[in-house]
Amino acid sequence: MITVTNLNGTSFVVNSNLIETIESIPETKITLTTGKYFLVAENSEEIVQKVILYNREIFKNTVKLKD
């Protein structure tokens, strides 16, 4: 789950596993696999970084590399 900001300044959480596309139109539009979409203040690069950081946090203890 990542936190993003609505255009009116309200923060909310999105399930990053459901993100299908991120578009700049010039607002940033996050479209989910369900067809629902959100217009947010963050740019696409910020959202991608949030998803990467979230996934790193979730998976950091599940993947063990062999020596």
Task: Tell me what you see in this structure.
This protein is an alpha+beta fold and 67 residues long. The chain has 1 helix and 5 strands, in the order βββββα. It has a 3-stranded antiparallel sheet, with no helix packed on it. Strand 3 (19-24) and strand 4 (28-32) form a beta hairpin.
What's the quick description here?
The model has no long low-confidence stretch (mean pLDDT 93).
How large is the share of residues in beta strands?
25-35%
State the major sheet.
3 strands, antiparallel
| Secondary structure: number of strands | 5
The share of residues in helices is 10-25%
Q: Spatial order of the strands in the main sheet?
A: 3-4-5
Radius of gyration based on Cα positions: 14 Å
Taking the alpha carbons of the first and last residues, their distance comes to 32 Å
Oligomer kind: single chain
Number of domains: 1
Let me know the average pLDDT. Answer: 93
Low-confidence stretches: none
Topology as a string of helices (H) and strands (E): EEEEEH
Molecular shape:
elongated
Continuous helix count: 1
- Secondary-structure-based class equals alpha+beta
Pfam family, one: FlbD
Keywords: Cell projection, Cilium, Flagellum
Protein name: Flagellar protein FlbD
Organism: Caproiciproducens galactitolivorans
